[in-house]
Fold these 2 entries.
Entry 1:
Amino acid sequence: MAGIGSYLKKHTEALVKDVGLEAACEVTGKSKATLGRYYSDSDDHSDRFMPIDAVALLEKVARYPHVTAALSELSGTTLSYDKTHKNSTEGGVNSDVVALSQRFAMLMAEYSQSIEDGIITINEAKRLLRETSELQQVLISMKLHLEEEAT
């Protein structure tokens, strides 16, 4: 359970930072200290997690549903995420392929730079994780466009 809790806390922190601490306080009606406790790895706060309604409010304004994606990964389910509106015809498979190749190139450049000294530091790992998440979002967009064309 400790591993799951730590994993969820890291994604909760990513969600709050995605929205911004000040904005997260406004959206949820919680204080900075309270939000901090939700993702603190301190033993005093190990059993504190963000309420699901606060997660929903934050994910509505975030660029990516960090906590929902983490829950999906933990349960072994696949999450289809589309940050555009359902009726949006923005882009298509061709633009997704371009975005995919650009994101993959950025991931490989980040990896190359990170592994140059033979050690991937925590900050380098965080940047690689961020790039991997961006790549995942492009793949999901591509999947949705392909599904749309298949029907």
Entry 2:
Amino acid sequence: MTTKNFQPQLQHFEQMCKDAGLKVTHQRLEIYRELLGSLDHPSAETLYKRLEKRLPALSLDTVYRTLATFEKLCLIHRVETVESQARYEALTTRHHHFLCDTCGQVFDFAWHSFDAMTLPSGLAEIGAVARTSVVVHGTCAACARKDQQNDTPEQAVVQPIITSTR
């Protein structure tokens, strides 16, 4: 995807940084761009590996600190996974997540009826809700197919019995 596809998000990003008193550095911009173009919810380590060739001065520590800053500014969302390794995404449209407990992939899905629901009144007594999201755990279709193939007993090779009646 090209930068033009993300122009509104990049303008929002730059404005949020300026409003927070942060410089829009080349490293911050590249980390955010990479997240905008990523559909796989990369970890900090994955982001670092993708960016290290383009940004040789980038350190893994800088990636972690930048992600933490972006999260505080509500520019990105951290998705906690089963393997306890946080994965990240740029916040663009409202959606939820399906986490495959087998392969670790994270899939986005929309659930408009959930988004339209009124929260329970008792939550106001607990505190102010900033956002809601659903994380569904299960087995993705690809892993389920693999499991099904592995569980299918091997077909015995049947040799025809040929008898001769002369």
